[in-house]
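lol ok so funny story. i was supposed to be doing the assay writeup but got distracted and ended up predicting the structure for this chain instead. priorities right. anyway since i did it might as well share w the group, maybe its usefull for someone
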Amino acid sequence: MRIMSRSRWLILAVSLCLLVFSDGRELKIRHKSDHPLYNHTLATILVEYASAVYISDLTELFTWTCSRCDGWTKGFEVIELVVDVQHCLQGFVGMAKNLNAIVIAFRGTQETSIQNWIDDLFWKQLDAHYPEVPDAMVHSGFYYAYHNTTIRPAIIDAVKRAKEVYGDIGIMVTGHSMGGAIASFCGLDLTLKYKSQNVQVMTFGQPRLGNAAFASYYSKLVPNTIRVTNGHDIVPHLPPYYYYFPQKTYHHFAREVWLHSIEFGSLVYKVETVCDGSGEDPTCSRSVHGNSITDHLAYYGVNMGCDASSSCRIVNDPRLLGYGNRDSTGNLILSRDPATPLLKLNTEFDHRVEGMVHALMNASVLC
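and the output, tada:
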């Protein structure tokens, strides 16, 4: 009886301590790892870039004055903004002085079409050979979204111009959902093009891209890669992985960081698990059913989708054409000289606005 009584008192004491330290609020505990690749603070910064690239108002995005262009990303200077209207893709390249790095971000799938996109991923076969890599197969849609659209040449050109100004600094590539898939192909491409080890990739809720041969090749060339997954997010489970056909199925590359929660009564422990180097750690997101679209649309508490006011429509201001070109299919590339201070850029932009207003006033008088 005394032993039972002591046990009860011990449990009560521990519970009271937990309540005191949590101050009645949700208790948050994170598993920390000595793995050099994952940095929680960096993840909370890059997730804001992956969220901001969804903004459809190109004026606000290009001048970095949008509702999501604040917080950790404040002061970011966009060098190039590319919108491939034909394939519904969007990305930007810019300089983040607080990271001393070039940041590249790609937009994911639009919320209005995400269910259809997910349905298609269930049945998507490995249907494209990755060039010059024996037995490496990839998802043709993701591969061509980067390699065969307006995206790649615009990104490569912007990175080249940025390096001419800022030197051989690091490159960080990020994206959410399909944007994460494109970011991965971009990171691999930049590594091959610049023969550099200073390319870092961090994606959020990305799908599988290819088979085990491709995953192995990717991990060897771009080892500084983190794939963040969240709870029961459905997208990282797609296209499906069949463990009994390891060489014939889709296979994630490493390294996954799985965000999930453990409940203990009224307390919630938020855990960040750095997974093993296999890419398909059975104790991480693969240990649960991937059945949640809600978990796909928020990472680290940040909204990963289009701004509600625009429903993913592109808001195009005619004034922006002075900073870029539109081709015959409607694709738009906006760029600026990296050596031009952002303050001067905004002043020039304001002057163009004033000129447009005067022109409209004169036109009204003439009418």
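The two ends are 98 Å apart (CA to CA). The first strand starts at residue 77 and ends at 84.
back to the writeup now i swear
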